[in-house]
Write a structure and sequence with these properties.
Oligomer: single chain
CATH class of the largest domain: Alpha Beta
CATH topology of the largest domain: Rossmann fold
CATH architecture of the largest domain: 3-Layer(aba) Sandwich
Number of domains: 2
Strand order of the largest sheet: 3-8-7-4-5-6
Order of helices and strands: EHEEEHHEHEHEHEHEHHEHEH
Largest sheet: 6 strands, mixed
Structural class: alpha/beta
Shape: elongated
Length: about 240
């Protein structure tokens, strides 16, 4: 089978390799272009730990002048891939919540009590306000936007043609925002009816919401919000 992988370019290669190992083909069509924002200022030495909800944060930090001073802090990551990216960036003390934002909040509350100070390295578009949610626990969170996720306006030309030609069997979706962008791009390319006929594999129920809202029928949702569970939805080729 041939799948459209909509995640950002830095992560899409890993997914393509995982699909190939299962006997499938991948066509990469990033819905978000990641741009580091190295100009943001923060002092890692004033925090107890770093929180990350995306591997993009870890990759952006490698281009930031505060990287060296940040590496002494523990990292609390939302899932395995974010944790892996943090280790690749040079962090040695990394713990994964192995889930979603709610699981990450539980991990934070279990590790830090009132008076804890956390640095949340984030993107410009966030689905939850971690600082507000942890304020009730008197855990201080400072958010530093270290990367921007810019939306695509069209699918890549080869992806559009493959969809028109019936050479795509399914689409992998990773977030609510990127799924919504995919639908906008499909409409911009006149592919609305074509993508309705495809199978859609979603990392979470939230990622599937834009598809459900438009009446898509073939929506498959991973039982856990991690890529291994998402790929397990796909039968070996």
């Amino acid at each position: 089978m041939r799948f459209l992988v909509t995640r950002p370019l830095a992560e899409a290669g890993h997914t393509a390799a995982a699909l190939a190992a299962r006997g499938h083909q991948a066509l990469i069509a990033p819905m978000l272009a990641i741009e580091s924002a190295s100009g943001v200022a923060f002092d890692p030495e004033s925090f107890d730990a770093i929180v990350m909800t995306s591997g993009n944060a870890a990759r952006a930090l490698t281009e930031h002048p505060a990287l060296g001073r940040s590496l002494t802090l523990p990292v609390l990551a939302v899932g395995g891939q974010t944790a892996h990216a943090a280790r690749d960036a040079g962090f040695s003390d990394v713990v994964s919540a192995e889930g979603d934002a709610a699981d990450l909040l539980t991990l934070v509350r279990g590790r830090f009590g009132a008076g804890g100070r956390l640095l949340y390295l984030a993107g410009n578009d966030r689905s939850r306000d971690l600082a507000a949610e942890l304020a009730a626990d008197r855990i201080h969170v400072e958010t530093a936007v270290v990367y921007r996720a810019n939306a695509a306006s069209r699918l890549p030309e080869d992806a559009e043609q493959a969809i028109r030609d019936g050479r795509v069997d399914g689409v992998l979706h990773y977030s609510r925002r990127s799924t919504a962008i995919f639908l906008d791009c499909a409409e911009a390319g006149g592919l609305g009816a074509h993508v309705q006929a495809l199978s859609h594999y979603c990392l979470s129920r939230r990622a599937a919401e834009p598809l459900s809202a438009k009446g898509f029928k073939d929506i498959r949702i991973a039982p856990r919000p991690d890529e291994a569970a998402l790929l397990d939805l796909i039968a070996p080729g």
